[in-house]
Automatic annotation (TrEMBL):
Gene3D superfamilies the UniProt entry points to: SGNH hydrolase
Keywords: Signal
Species: Elstera litoralis
Name of the featured protein: Uncharacterized protein
MF term (GO), any: hydrolase activity, acting on ester bonds
Domain of life: Bacteria
Signal peptide: 1-23
């Protein structure tokens, strides 16, 4: 058996051995109540870099068979935790998301009285949910911001980052 076959076998064995751990982690909520037409991304550089998560989602929406006038806004602070964000301020009337631009660069104002976002995706710093000194802040602000989002008529979605490459045990901790 050559090195490439041995390496493939080792990877497959490791993956199959880890499958029970993946199977144990089941989120309580697996779908939104309805398909959103607008989203607010609240987080940090994980949402912003590499052409931003909201831009990639928009590309999926634009290429979908069913056309949807999906709009999104990203409120990101580099290296931030959820406690750095004033989520209530993002829902003030005539503020974030109160207008956008169409393909011809014309201003499109959000109709008065329309809720600014259908869904708000919240992300804490990558290690905050499992860090001994920060995980209580994560819990506190995830709950606080989720309540704020719901009070403004949107659905909160918690986005958990991936484990660090050199700390694979973070996967289980983040999933829990």
């Amino acid at each position: 058996m050559g090195w490439s076959h041995l390496r493939a076998f080792a990877l497959l064995t490791g993956f199959l051995g880890a499958m029970p751990a993946f199977a144990e982690v089941k989120p309580e909520v697996t779908a939104l109540n309805q398909a959103p037409h607008s989203a607010l991304y609240v987080g940090n550089s994980f949402f912003y870099y590499n052409n931003s998560l909201h831009a990639h989602v928009r590309e999926f929406v634009l290429r979908a068979e069913t056309k949807n006038n999906f709009r999104s806004v990203s409120a990101t602070i580099s290296a931030s935790g959820l406690n750095w964000h004033d989520v209530a301020a993002y829902f003030r009337p005539d503020a974030v998301g109160s207008y956008s631009f169409d393909a011809q660069n014309r201003v499109i104002f959000t109709p008065k009285g329309q809720k600014p976002f259908d869904v708000t995706i919240l992300m804490d710093c990558s290690q905050c949910p499992v860090h001994p000194e920060l995980k209580t802040l994560f819990t506190e602000y995830a709950e606080k911001h989720a309540a704020t989002v719901r009070a403004n008529g949107a659905e909160p979605v918690l986005f958990m980052s991936w484990a660090y490459q050199n700390v694979p045990e973070m996967t289980g901790e983040l999933a829990d």
